Amino acid sequence: MTHESEADPDQTHARGTRRRSLLKAGLALPLGTSALLAACGGGGSSSGFSPTPVAVAPPPSPAVVPTPPVDPPPPRPVEKAVKNVRVLNLQTPSTAPLPDQRLKDEAIETYTRRALQAKFNLLSDALAQGLPKKSAPTDLCFFVVPEFFWNVNWDAVRNEEEIKAFSTTCVIEVQKHVRALIALFPQDQYGKLALLPGTSQVLMKQLVEPPAAPAPQGGPVKDEDLPPYEALNYVLVIDNFSKANPDGSRPIAMWPKRNVSWIDFDTDGGTQVLKDGRAYWKVLLGHLDILVLMESTTTAAYYADGKQYTGFDNDPLGGVPFGVDVCLDYMASYTEKQYLRMSQIEDTNYIIDFLLAAGMTADPETHKYLPSVQYIVRNDGYYVGACEIFQLSAPTTSEGIAKRPGNARVAQTAVANLAPNTILFDAYFDVHPLGQYPEIPDIPDLPTEPLPSPFVPTASA
Predict the structure, then answer these.
(1) What is the pLDDT of residue 331?
(2) What would the mean pLDDT of 386-412 be, rounded to a whole number?
(3) For labelling alongside 60, which of 24, 35, 382, 385 has CA 20 to 30 A away?
(4) CA–CA separation, 461 vs 448, rounded Å?
């Protein structure tokens, strides 16, 4: 995984820019001018012929040397100004323990693969039922699934070795399933499709030097001596229309959650532990106590053209840039504390903000947004789950990041019932170019039939 290093916030907190960092070595640099001249230079003549010198005209005065025009780089091609977007929102509970428990003698790897296969089957069924029910022309369809969708019961792990085996299996299997899912729905049959298929949460043990001394036999372990871990809670984003990798696979991006909530694990009532200047949650996994870092250090990355890049390509189509917030990150999306988050996004003027959550509301009237944001798409897996889409009004202030009190809900239609409390919703809206905003529909109040006044005395009958 890629981890963030120290960075200058003045350099990284850029807005309205596009960026890409390539991690590779051995690039061939263009041949320099001096090298080119040396390679093309001539030698003496074997015939002894001495050419007659030719007078060379003096160069023109610097004042009359024409300056060739410098054209700006061409803009990223955009198919058309207004884009028709479809969102398939899968409402499903993602925080309840799985009913399918680990068997007594079952290996943790076997149990994890079995549980993840069932989750893949649910997503493939949802898309197979929902995609053909398109009711309006669309340029791009997003399929959205809540936070923790790929989680397997943490109580299934029995020791630290199984934490590593479980996390390793999840990382490998979830990528396989996400790639297999997009392969089932090619562009030529289903149109352009992008998946935000929910998050997977794993644990990475921190390498501490020197390692903590073992606790006395049968004695209690101090909280600060518990084994420290870092959580990686991430969504894999993939589409069916970007240029394929040399091996034929689809480009894929990873967007991680930064802030770990006290409800992300069983945190022993929200117990916080300070260890070596870092803040941790005390977490109970089954009968195992560990520490989990409260702020993840993992940064976004993606794989395209057979290479790994840092950052997040958030506009593969062109004209529909989007941001992703995973639950608690939504509360601090645009604060100075989160400059590293914004520095990882290729196009910070994004138009759609996706909130994948498990217990986080989306309130456009109290939350601050970038002026470019036109829509909020929320998919929450807490309790029975909830899905909603808000259309934001145009900003009324020049401050940039500000509240947007005028908004409207975008209608969603249930198109498939897949399991108890699992419903696929379908929605359509238009996104406009940067700086333009779709009109908020004016919905007048309906008149009501009159009733007697609830407070003015009336004559008795």
Answers:
(1) 84
(2) 86
(3) 35
(4) 24
